[in-house]
């Protein structure tokens, strides 16, 4: 009889504990996530295309890299470089990318060329839905570091095309380079 009461008591405790867990998990499920507190996620760049640019180093000066598309490949060791082998373009340099569809972004992640040579000091980002009318999101000041840098917008933006414009470079020459650039959302 004693054991029966004890077993019943244990069963009640187990039931109540289970009920409490269900209630807690139900109440957690109903919490609305705050988008500002979610981790930022880079957009997938599959199918994206460089549709215009001022110049790129495709004359062998940087070997297999140096092309505009190298800022979209996810590899920090490949980079775009303004043309320098037999050419002398001056800033502003620019690269225009077509994301193929309109997407919402809250900013850009950027990585300087990892050798820290020809790093960009100031840049402007413009966005467009039709590759004709452009909105400037302002001029961003970068750091001369290897780490990923966050170029956050004041508010989320929806666009299909973006234009990255190099205004000035840290070493004071006309040459610029960039390893990675990707809009992010969450
Ligand atoms: Ca790259």
Features:
seven-stranded antiparallel β-sheet; 1 helix; two-stranded antiparallel ribbon; Jelly Rolls; 2 domains; 9 strands; 186 residues
Structure description:
This protein has two domains: 2-31; 41-185, Galactose-binding domain-like (Jelly Rolls, Sandwich), CATH 2.60.120. It is of the alpha+beta class. The chain has one helix and nine strands, in the order H-E-E-E-E-E-E-E-E-E. The longest helix is centred in the N-terminal third of the chain and has 28 residues, at 2-29. It is globular, with a radius of gyration of 25 Å. The chain has one helix at residues 2-29; strands spanning 41-42, 49-53, 80-81, 93-111, 120-128, 135-141, 149-169, 177-178, 180-185. Residues 70-71, 73, 75, 78-79, 179-180 line the site of calcium ion (CA). Residues 1-25 form the signal peptide.
Offer a concise description of the structure:
Pfam families: F5_F8_type_C. By secondary structure, the chain is α+β, with helices and mostly antiparallel strands. It is built from one helix and nine strands; from the N terminus they run αβββββββββ.
């Amino acid at each position: 009889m004693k054991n029966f009461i004890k077993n019943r008591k244990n069963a009640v405790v187990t039931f109540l504990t289970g009920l409490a867990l269900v209630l807690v998990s139900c109440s957690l499920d109903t919490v609305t996530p705050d988008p500002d507190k979610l981790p930022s996620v880079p957009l997938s760049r599959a199918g994206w295309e460089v549709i215009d640019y001022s110049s790129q180093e495709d004359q062998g000066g940087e070997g297999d890299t140096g092309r505009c598309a190298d800022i979209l490949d996810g590899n920090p060791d490949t980079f775009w470089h303004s043309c320098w082998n037999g050419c002398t373009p001056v800033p502003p340099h620019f690269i225009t990318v077509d994301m193929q569809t309109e997407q919402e972004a809250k900013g850009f992640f950027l990585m300087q060329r990892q050798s820290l040579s020809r790093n960009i000091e100031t840049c402007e980002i413009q966005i467009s839905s039709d590759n004709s009318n452009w909105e400037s999101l302002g001029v961003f000041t970068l750091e001369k570091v290897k780490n990923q840098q966050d170029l956050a917008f004041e508010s989320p933006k929806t666009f299909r095309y973006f234009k990255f414009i190099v205004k000035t470079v840290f070493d004071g020459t006309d040459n610029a380079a960039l390893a990675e650039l990707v809009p992010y959302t969450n």
